[in-house]
Amino acid sequence: MTRMKEPVATDLEAVGKAARKAARHLARLSSRVKDQALVELAGLLRARQEEALEANGRDLRSEKEAGLSAALLDRLMLNPSRLSAMAEDVLKVAALPDPVGETFDMRTLANGLIVGKRRVPLGVIGAIYESRPNVTIDISALSLKSGNACILRGGSEAVNSNRVLAGLVRRACASAGVPEDAVQFIDNTDRAVVYDMLKLKQYIDLLVPRGGADLIRFAAQEAAMPVVTGGIGICHTYVDRAADLKKAVAIVYNAKVQRPTVCNALDTVLVHADVASRFLPLVARELGGAGVELRCDQRAWSLLAPLERARVVPAAQEDWGKEFLDLIAAVKVVDSLEEALDHIQTYGSGHSEAIVTEDYGAAMRFLDEVDAAAVYVNASTRFTDGGQLGLGAEVAISTSKMHARGPMGLKELTSYKWIVLGTGQVRE
Q1: Which of 96, 142, 185, 332 is the most buried (most CB within 10 A)?
Q2: How far, in Å, CA of 201 to CA of 197, rounded?
Q3: Are 133 and 158 in contact (CB under 8 A)?
């Protein structure tokens, strides 16, 4: 087999020029060609699984020796089921309608002009991300389908994994007739490259940072181009006085335990005082059995400290508004929906918030007043995910209110241009 050219480049000016050229070509490609590239990619993720796992094993061994936290090691890890899920998500993206070229808001003006909007790609997406190799595939797939080129710079902790995955994407592109440079991977792990990439305004149309608060803050402050802000999830679940407690236990357990190291996992449980004495022992036993530590305010502590299976400690002030990314949750008893809303406004990050209640009025007030990208009634915050919400995948979860909010899928990677059809009209 002929060895494919490695997707390696450190000359950012050359990378930017090549991406811009590829983006112009990609914007003209048919849905059939783009979908074929995605189908090829899904096949390669399965056929070259061992190659990806071997590279990921090297990253894991290196980062374990370096003392990377358990939460970040979990984000870094690939296994057969995760690779299979990545392939399935790529196929889901391929099956989605192509947004490029969609016309909408068409209307005829009094002067006879027909005006409307046509959806177009943004151009070149830049992504800087940490730990998660699946981001390489998610952003590549969504960029390709939406007609955008992308420049990827993953973290040093996942460089071997990302190099292999980016190589598979480029191989799939070449096989389907898509320019290889539509997806470019920068494997130079020098942090100075990140700063230089943030200045490529003439080539990168949108910058997507995926990682911790420091990375996102740095990108927002230093980038010369628009930046998607988000990904920091301080997520609350409020158990209302009218909650179905069986539902509430299941929802809280899922939101905290199903995968605690991700941004849409639960961080704080707020419980109405009227149901606290019944609900808290129920949920504490379930969470305690899963190894969850509960950091409780005084009222929650007084209810839970006597329980044998509960793992409880008094909460410190810094536990409110903290993204734990671990089997830890803060617990607070509140006297009203109003108090719960105030707490969320004070300590939330605008990511995902949930209420458990059978009271329609309380549910609607929660939906109306909570300022977050995703707001839930009687469901786990773990659903804030592009794949779960029918987008196939996501490039990021935006907590910004400009351009896009929440999981960003295909349409969120497009803009539009006005189209105007006339019959000779001139302005008087």
Answers
A1: 142
A2: 9
A3: yes
